[in-house]
Structure formats: structure tokens, C-alpha cells
Description:
80 residues; alpha+beta; 2 domains; 1 helix; 2 strands; 40% helix
Amino acid sequence: xxxxxxxxxGITFIPQDKMGTRMVSTGELRLINVSVPVHHLxxxxxxxxxxxxxxxxxxxxxxxxxxxxxxRRFHNEKNN
Length: 80
């Protein structure tokens, strides 16, 4: 996993149109002729996927909790 500075040349973000929760931007990140300093490496060189997986696991629990709360509110409004 790497840390990139916004505004540097060669970095393009292409937003993805999506349905549902829009709390976080989703899209494609294109890197063309971008050099990344070694001190911008987060974790060890081959551990990026496991770091991302642990972050997404936390996000999935939070999104599930939000969905349950929305369902509870809808049910309460419908029955009152």
C-alpha cells in the first residue's frame, strides 16, 4: 500500500457511478509514470492487500450496522 500526494502529475481518479451508500467515493485510480518515494510505503512491500482487507472488514461491520438501524427506523415509522 502506498501514500500518494494529490495534485501530482500522472495520477487520475475516475469516479464510478453507484447505487446505495455514497459515504465514500468509489472509482478507478490510474497511475501513469508515477514514481513513489520508498518512505510513502505503508507497511511492508507485500502486505498492502492484508492492510486493505482489515480496513474493509471494519467498514463492512459499520455499513451493516447502518443498514440495520435504517431498517429499524423504517419499521418503526411504518408501524406508528
